[in-house]
């Protein structure tokens, strides 16, 4: 939706309609983007909800000419990063670690026996990358955003995006080599 | 060709198909259902799109930072819990996160909310503020905090009465200090906001020490 339309729809009903449209247009993508950070569906849904609340509250601050998608993604990503720094997340992570540690060894063996196909290995290794490399890869290859757009969303220079993308690919390549060796014994 | 080489050499091709790969696998179950979409819209409608009509709770500015802080508060086990660096004093400190701190500074807001205590009919907490703003500025901020708090409370306890109908609420606004004292210091208080149970009005004690009350 264009900014002109937003400004014309300052009333409650207008804003409600805008939020509905945004949720329809970007909701699922934001949910998935949030999941790529927090790796928990329930929390990703919470972040989507908080993002839409912030979008509603900040609707009037959106500058003319500003890219709507980048703006919404930036809000969502900031919320993900805030959550990842939070005490709540650290507690959640700790409980997951504890849960994994008490899992039966038989189950671990079973899991190791699952032969993953190459697409699954790629997805798994991508989600194991450090957040700063994973985010640029997802924004570039999944969201099809340009280096400039990614730079705007993350608040970094396009050159930095490019170098993170390069290094991220390199890390992914190394991880794939290791992963393939591990899974196929080579 | 060796499987390992094939996989690594075609990584760029695979990355170009990343949308397809993730949609088919990792994101297969991460979908926004109609019911979830409606739930999000309902929560927004309840919280801000159709707010209470009380004059005292007009809600104008962006509250993301306050929302963030209060969400953190509400995710703790419950609000009757007090913890922190001083067991005797039941001290609860909620430092804002890095990003939050930046926004808080831009908005000239406090960086900490302290000493939250709640029981079945009262809620009190201390907000540290810089004392170089006019009182009207802080009044608006407290109204915003309480409004957000009420919204979140309602969302967490949808079957309970409104916060306003259950609790006497008192907010102590004290001078900002990077190392807050472990004990509540009345001499540090600049402004007190009090809202009695069932009332829509916030009483403002602008001179705490002389107990001068302004509405």
Automatic annotation (TrEMBL), chain A:
It comes from the Bacteria. Residues 128-171 form the RNA polymerase sigma factor 70 region 4 type domain. Gene3D superfamilies: 1.10.1740.10, Winged helix-like DNA-binding domain superfamily/Winged helix DNA-binding domain (1.10.10.10). One of its GO terms (molecular function) is DNA binding. It holds the Pfam family Sigma70_r2. The keyword Zinc-finger does not apply. Keywords: DNA-binding, Sigma factor, Transcription, Transcription regulation. GO terms for biological process: DNA-templated transcription initiation; response to stress. SUPFAM superfamilies: Sigma2 domain of RNA polymerase sigma factors, Sigma3 and sigma4 domains of RNA polymerase sigma factors. Residues 24-88 form the RNA polymerase sigma-70 region domain. The keyword Isomerase does not apply. Belongs to the sigma-70 factor family. ECF subfamily. PANTHER family: RNA POLYMERASE ECF-TYPE SIGMA FACTO (PTHR43133), RNA POLYMERASE SIGMA FACTOR SIGV (PTHR43133:SF60). This is RNA polymerase sigma factor.
